[in-house]
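Hey, resending since the last one bounced:
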Amino acid sequence: METINADLVTQVANINNERRATSFRWRGLSVTVRGSINLREYVSFIQTVLHGCTDPETGDFHIELFDLVFMATVVMMFTNIELPADLETQFKILFWTDLYNEVCLRISEAQLESLRKTVERYVAK
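The structure tokens again:
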């Protein structure tokens, strides 16, 4: 069996470039979505979600915040959108509109699934 070297695999896979950004109009706003994030950002994403669900005073993990924090982190790390700090407002934007779904349509499904599974595995410990 012939071995294919790593340089050739990298070249053929074209992994040196992140997935290109795309844009769409959402309620009059021009939203830019990055199709993927790099490894450093991937780790930061996971830490952001875990930190966002953890009470800083008690260290308790609040699973009830998981979906909201995960969705907010997707929007903030993959787009040019800065969400309000207020969780109630974030909740309304992410659960009462189609913003999150529109963003997810433009993100690498494999990476999004991997992010969710990685955080869920940590939470399950």
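The chain has one domain: 19-124.

Sorry for the duplicate.
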